[in-house]
Amino acid sequence: MTKGGMVDVATRLAFFKGLQAVTNRIHAAENIDEIIFELSSDICALFGADRLTIYVVDEGRATISSRIKTGLNSIRTIRLPIAENSVAGYVAMSGRLLNIADVYDEQALKLISPTMEFRREVDERTGYRSRQMLVAPIVKADDGEIIGVIQFINTRSGQVFSQVAEEGILGLAQTLAVAFAQRRSATPLPKSKYAALVTDGLLTTSELLAATRAARERNLPLEQFLLEEFELSLADLGRALSVFFGVPYEPFRNERVKPLDLLRNLKREYVQQSQWIPLEETPGGLLILSTDPEQAIASRVVQNVFPKSRLVFCVTTQQEFSQTVNQFFDASIDDTSVTELLSDLGEEDAEVLNNAEVIAAAADNELVKLVNRIIIDAYRQGASDIHIEPRPGKDKTQIRFRKDGTLVPYIEIPASYRNPLVTRIKIMCDLDISERRKPQDGKIKFRRFGPLDIELRVATVPTSGSMEDVVMRLLINTEPLPIEALGLNAQVKDRLFDAISKPYGIFFVCGPTGAGKTTTLHSILSRLNTPETKIWTAEDP
Asked: What mean pLDDT comes out for the span 286-297?
């Protein structure tokens, strides 16, 4: 063996002797944090590398995450998708070892995968220049499952990582796979609503304990501290709460309809104090949202408020609960009195009223305010139509909004008020209140009755049992859309411009309700409306 060969053997033996020492320290470490943060400098020294990053596959197996220190007491979590568009993500997806000479060499990356690219955001933000990269999967020996990725960045020699380093990183990955499995199964989880964050690999036990102490010292809610310091999402916290309480997590939804009939006996202050609120009637029962379902169930107050209902509980975060309360108790347009309107109307049995009694009931102040509120809510929720659907007998009158083409429930009105409700709407659009056997059409200029400058196109249709359905279409006064904004393709737009430029003929527009006929015609009229042009219009919807 040559002298040079003896040096190579000596270097190799020294490397694997050092690797064995690192392996022993990894097995002796108490938690994964100690492996990642306290041993990383020694591991980098052994491999002759500048930096080390260890990623863990998240629970959903769609991303990998790594925790890095950003200050003395601050830790930030970074995440990458398990996909071919990043180096570590590709290794997590393919299970291949990669030894790259220069991660800025796009052609070399494309040879590995056509969609691979180096994510330069960290380099650009910090000024650090990544070049060499050695990356290997962390694989469980028993079933071959990839549970993480280990990544070295930049050799101190400036050369590509050696073959010895390749062998070493595979051995190190095997050691980490055993250590991670042992720590996850052996570490006792703290008794916390957010313990599932540890189980899911989003936090370590020590991080959760440290966060709990720090939040207490700063007099901050733990939820707020976790969101700000660890860059977790509300969905992450919600899933942890779901595991802890054993009920589904319900996120905040902008499109949720305010359940006026469920809120009639509840005040905003009580809801904020008790931390529960009814959401909606579902096939499984009345859905109750709470930040602490166990407390809400144990107090039995919810059951006392809704004694005839089967209760179904769900959990949410403090932030999303506050958003829901603001959504349901928004006081911008006299919400306090409106919330009590249904309660003021009462639950009397349906009666057959004569015309005089119906007219008197239609003029009732609470019913007037309720009709105004229905229109205002429809406008604020972006509804295109309001459907009022009386039912026979003692069944309540259902009111639904059409939003994005789909009808969604809004509220139900006591059966005794179905005729006065329809009569009130007829009065607002000057229809014949005594005619109930023929369809009628009309229009409401709502600024005569409420704070919105909108119009409503109204149609009444007789139904069985001498009742009438009412449909109100909201016509919002806005500037016409430019023709270019209608989404027409070039060929159709050219033919349209040619047709409307002619000073003669008939331009025919057809389509189902909501197809955009009025919008299209208004856009065309806006284009034709020039100072030198005289335009007359006649419309009968």
From this structure: 92
